[in-house]
Design a protein that fits this description.
alpha/beta; seven-stranded mixed sheet; 2 domains; Aspartate Aminotransferase, domain 2; 33% helix; 12 helices
């Protein structure tokens, strides 16, 4: 019998069911999910409002190419538009976050006709060849080099380097407002402001990667709104369709006709089932005021993490329900120990434990994480 190729670490449990912030294995054991498939299930596993929308769509039509309109896609655009800042009137539908980054770069190159793409130290933007080219960590890149050659890496959060990093040859600058995979590192206000000002001076496109930070997770609809700046394009994905595959590049209205027919395409983009899920997710987002919930529960979660007593703990990083606990040692050694105690988590960078729970996480859940962390760090520090 064939097997699935292994390129992910395996944890040795089989998950068979999920509901909101919890998942269950094939032995009936319950886990608190602060992994959420790398942040995808921010609105909760099997959220009833999204499930109902998907069930209805399954009985109507599944796959409709972008050559044709369909009510599911029209409803998504109507609902999702309510979450967009003014002037962001163009949505490029894709299937994944890395595709969203790819199309954003293509837009910038088509508009500017310049070669250089700027990324930053500790960035992560995806694993397809273009987005991989602006992903910093060598472990993701080295086996596939040479990649796209016209890439310049600036120093993340170093304002004094911005002017010389962004030259007249730059088509776009791609930056995360909070670096996820790179270590849960928030950008400073001064840094993002400097990027915005310098890209405007040089005629380059500013692309903000909101794949992980966007859709309410940080306590704002889009994390860049906390910085009082606007990019030219931002990318979204992960949580937008409640856990189904989606990626988006959202651009200013004037970019709507940048591609001629055939210059860009995607077979599965705008799939009717995904659109139904994303429309339901967007409506749920507004009805339950997801950013406010993420902000308030995130503050409680951050406080609980900061009070974990361990000589291994350094500091809490992040915003809303995108949090990291930086350690003095490598973080991956603690993932299995937390798993054995009923908590799923991730790492970020080398020495940060990352927590990406659903918005419905409770005070009791937070206490559980803090208790498990205290025990795990104490056990492993002796």
């Amino acid at each position: 019998m064939a097997r699935i190729a292994r390129y992910y670490r395996e944890y040795g449990i089989k998950l068979v069911r999920g509901f909101m912030q919890y998942v269950w294995d094939d032995n009936g054991r319950r886990y608190l999910d602060c992994n959420t498939n790398h942040g995808v299930v921010f609105l909760g596993h099997s959220n009833p409002k999204i499930v109902e929308a998907v069930k209805r769509q399954l009985e109507e039509i599944w796959a409709v190419p972008l050559n044709f309109s369909t009510p599911a896609r029209e409803f998504f655009v109507k609902e999702f538009s309510k979450l967009l800042p003014p002037r962001f009137g163009t949505i490029f539908l894709q299937n994944t976050g890395t595709e969203a980054v790819e199309v954003a770069i293509k837009i910038a190159k088509k508009i500017t006709r310049r070669p250089v793409v700027v990324g930053f130290t500790n960035s992560f933007h995806g694993r397809t060849m273009g987005s991989l080219s602006i992903t910093w960590n060598e472990k993701y890149r080295k086996a596939f080099e040479p990649l796209y050659p016209h890439v310049r890496f600036g120093k993340f959060n170093v304002v004094s380097e911005v002017e010389k990093t962004i030259g007249e040859d730059v088509c776009c600058v791609v930056v995360e407002p909070i670096q996820g995979e790179g270590g849960v590192n928030p950008a400073t206000h001064d840094f993002l402001k400097a990027l915005r000002e310098e890209t405007m001076r040089k005629g380059a496109i500013l692309i903000i990667d909101e794949i992980q930070t966007g859709f309410g997770r940080t306590g704002a609809t889009w994390a860049f709104q906390k910085y009082n700046i606007e990019p030219d394009i931002f990318t979204a994905g992960k949580a937008v369709a409640g856990g189904l595959p989606i990626g988006l590049a959202v651009a200013k209205e004037e970019y709507g006709d940048v591609f001629d027919p055939g210059e860009h395409g995607s077979t599965f983009a705008g799939n009717a089932i995904v659109m139904a899920a994303a429309a339901a997710a967007s409506r749920l987002f507004r009805e339950e005021d997801i950013p406010t919930r993420a902000e308030s529960m995130g503050a409680k979660f951050a406080k609980a993490l900061s009070e974990v007593e361990s000589k291994l703990a350094v500091r809490v990083k992040g915003a809303g329900l995108m949090l990291g606990l930086e350690l003095r040692v490598k973080a991956d050694q603690f993932i299995n120990s937390m798993l054995e105690r009923g908590v799923l988590a991730l790492t970020a960078g080398v020495n940060t434990l990352r927590f990406l729970p659903p918005y419905v996480i409770t005070n009791e859940d937070i206490d559980t994480v803090a208790s498990v962390l205290s025990e795990v760090l104490k056990t492993n520090s002796s």
